[in-house]
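hi! just following up on the protien thing from before. the input was this:
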Amino acid sequence: GTILSMPHGASQEDYKNERILKGFIGRNAKHWYRYAIQCGRDIDCHSLYLVTGCLKSRSWGIVTYDTTVHDHYSTLIIGKSPDPEGPVYEWKKSGKATTYRTGPVPDVTTDTQSRIPDSENQCLFLRGFKISL
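and the predicted 3d structure came back as:
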């Protein structure tokens, strides 16, 4: 399973009129593939996507586990990282967690006083159309 935490919440942006896009995609898909190949992309006829929406956040944490987490001794807590040059948050874990990540990772070339971005610049999910020929 997977657990995603967004300590500062998230916002969603979506293109509203997808019906118009379907006709546009049908008329232009071959041109987009031809252009991508001319640019040197090694793609097949199922490789392009038209993004119509996204879910963005200022910060996030994700953890995966292999087995069920029904054991009452399994605990996953996301907390502030003590490392000023490390990620903003870290998972404090016990139990069955196998992989965990957090973001954003601070850029050490910039001011590390404010490690959490002012804007939602962490893209967590994309929505859209898979374009196939």
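The beta strands are 2-5, 10-14, 48-57, 60-65, 75-80, 89-94, 97-103, 122-131.
The helical segments are 18-38.
cheers
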